[in-house]
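Quick log. Single chain, no ligands specified.
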Amino acid sequence: MAKTNRKGKYMPLEWEPSAANTAIFQIPSRERKILKITNPLGSKSSAVDQCPTGSPYNVTSSNEGRGEEANVSPHVINATKQSNFTSEQGITTSNGSRARPDTIPPQKPSPNGPESGRRTSFIKQTQPEFQNATKEALPAPKTTTIASRENSQQWRPDVYVQTFVSEALRAINDAPAPLVTTRPVDGIDFGKYVSTFAGTHFLPTLDKPLYTSVNGNLPVNSLDRLLPENYEQYFGDCLVLDLEAQIPECRSYDLFGVQLKLKHPEQQIYELRVPGLREGTPSVNFGDSVMLRQLIIDPATRMPRGMDLWLKPGVGRDKGAPCPGFAGVEVQATVVGINKFNEALKLKANGLALPGTPVCNVSFVVQASLVQIMQRAVADIQQELGRGTGSAKSSKVSKDTATEQITDYRLVNKDKMMEARNSNGVTDCRPAGFQPQSSLSVTVDRSPSTETSQENLMSSECPSTDSWLRAMLFPSKSNGIQQKALPSARFPQTWFDTSLNYEQKKAVDAVQSRYYGTFGYLINGPPGTGKTKTICEMVTQLGNDSALTGSILLCAPSNPAADTLALRLKVYFGPKRMLRLNAFSRTFAEVPEELLPFCFVENEIFSIPPLPKLMAYKVVVTTCRDADILVQARVTNRDLVSVQENLFMAVHPDRPSVFSTEAPLHWTALIIDEAAQATEPETLIPLTVVTPHTARVCIPSPIFVMAGDQHQLNARTYHKSTTLHVSLFERLSSHPIYASHPLARKSLYRPLQSSPMLRPPFVNLVRNYRSHSAILAIPSSLFYANTLIQEATHTDTLQSWSGWCGRRWPVLFACNGGMDDCEDICTVGGGWYNRREAKKAIAYVLSLIAEEMIVEQSDICIMSPFRAQVNLLRKIARESSLWGVNIGPMEAFQGLENRFVIICTTRSRKRFLEEDKMRGMGVVDEKKKFNVAITRAKEGLIILGNPWVLATDPCWLAFMNFCRRNSLWSEDSEKEDARMQGLEEANVNEWRPPQGSGNGDSHDEAQISGLEAGLIYKERNKQAGSRAARRFMSGSESQEDTLWRTGLAAEEALRPMEP
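-> predicted structure:
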């Protein structure tokens, strides 16, 4: 009889022969995990027979999201001489008998479906994990090949499961324990800072209730449900759901049975090696918390002490006895140092029970403080929207606006609704008597026209807080200004950067003059069109405009992006006029050396300058999240006005406050670069800094500008069913005010309407200064309405390379018929890789260098969506002495550019595509990832992939059609991969574009983009010029030559008649 475990469940086992001698086990536990045990010696004999007892094995997980080296201690897998495994010789049982892999029969199909049927042998799961195997040989099953298994209904191993961890170690993590906290690192004392200029008497408390529950009555999977009245509830639910979705990912990075090295005994500082830290898996910052549970190790077994007996039914655990292998306390350690190069953390841990070098289970927890910052910003915005609505009760209501905004979805909690509401529940987003102003006579939303000068516009009154916020977050036509005359092509500014093009100058002039009304101004810039360049000129113009008082808050979603802005602006603003504001958790090594004079340091950490010094800066550069420093320091526009007003009333109680009629703003502009990469709640953090005081007349009204590209990668979120990943920039870009405007990008080639239109609160950058036209052709057609204009120079320097095909444009699709694998690679964590594809990519690099097309290796980058493929590429490249080639995941290259780009798509089997989509992996059905990858290249682009797989994505199909019809195509010269025998994907050279898709066999003009047509036209003119030259040299003359000479003669005859 086959043995079962104590729960009566059978232990299925399946072998897959591989070069790494890898055995795959599936343990039918609560989480159904697969374990890979790799023989470190790579021999055909038993791994345990060759290794000392208790030696660690390379245990890898197939969870692609991790991608780090699985440096798991022997406590995770205790494969001792009690249970020996080998993929060649079968199973060695505890009594010495062997059961070969070919004697394992298939299990009868389960009634739950064909996927439940498995080929099994039966192993009893006790402690250690695998103690007994079957004692009798079983009948041999029918032999099946790997290719036939692809299409069969038999059980296949799940390649996405996580690393198996023993029950003993998981039980220790689940055991109850008191918490011992470690003192957090010293940060900024905001209470002390605020007391230097204002006491609690002059400022209300900052603490506001945070949204902590999810109300299922409001769907958060559609932006159609988002209204000003339910703003906090909508994004509160999104943030809570996203926070909950982060927990499983954090738990997937947990480490079990790892040893900490004691570095400073007197300070109790330990070093912890964390695989994947270099690539942000997990993401850990200075000052974060890490949970430690110390193990009590038995020296004989190198396992937690006494766990075998404690885990038995009816013994220790079932009776509630303390866990004998656990020290009994959970320590909340603090990160005090990060070394990403060596993937090591320094932890300060007070209260570890056992001295020396402890062995611990390490848990990474969600840092809820980052979410709480956004929750506070959302609550702050909702509170100000409510206050503003109450103060604007007398406003006229636009019938059209009311009709658009009223829906059946309202806040369920009535106490969160505004008490003072008009009959329709909405306003027209402007106070009573407010008139839009401009330098021309205009009519706005049926309001009387007004006529003022440019100077009056600069000093015009702004609406109340609610009106201003609604105009920024929920714009309507009533916020705009109608255009009745064509704008002038001349600009009055003296440009600091004289290389700006017309669209860039137009954006700067529009923001500086603010002639477009009360809107958030959007700079829509595709890759390589100069968004950051436009932002820097805009900041410089505003910072040197004497008519604009106050300071400019300049933000970006990430520290590198903010550093780029500061580095470009330091030429125009010295250290006394510009501040690079950093969080105290940022290390000095992360900041470029040139920017250190622009930073403020106190007590050996980055901090905020004293109030007088802070107010003197003209430009403050920081990240969107670090703008919360200004919120906690109570230097927002509303807080500053409150301090001034309350202090004036305290000093002059008998005199009316001058701030009741006029409140000058300190923060007069908020400009966010790369805004499409930030979530909307993240964008709200700096927005709360510049929001004017409720029901006050502010001079001038704040400027709000965002630059970005909604077709590139957005912010990373964890919950897939909410709209949190949609940025404020993207949401506004799809609003009719912007998307349906006659000058919108998709409407540029349509006839203009005859009726007056609103002045555009946006600009479309169309001139690309990065890439060759062949590289831009498909992105321009798919994402930018065929509007991109190629302005880059010297992009044809690599066209003489021997690797190009067809028209010899610097684009190539290279077919790859190699199979994608998922197993251990050189002791690196499991994941998807494609060895044939990696070798082809490195061969292309070596060819470019051998032909001296590229001298600097850093001019070449290779990217792949799978980390395991990235690791393999790096390994092969280093073996070929290619140390300078940039190799990394696609997400790491957003915002960067390289002369030559090679994209490894890796996936070669369709059956994994659905799982890829669920997990956000790969490049199929990932439009934004496709766009980012293609547009990184300047002078050369190669795509390696399987056309059968990529053709399931319309974007990749369009790109492959482009390559086919222009013969930019290279077939796979290697023989068919035997492991893919019988699969359609194996015959990559037989792929042809489907009919009617703009394939290479029919030159359908509708499928050819403007840039592609321009390249073809240029090529034909060049060929025609060569033919004309040959005819001239041969003395023959065609009809065209005769007409040309006749024209010259007519011109000579008319010349004497000129005055």
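The first strand starts at residue 13 and ends at 15.
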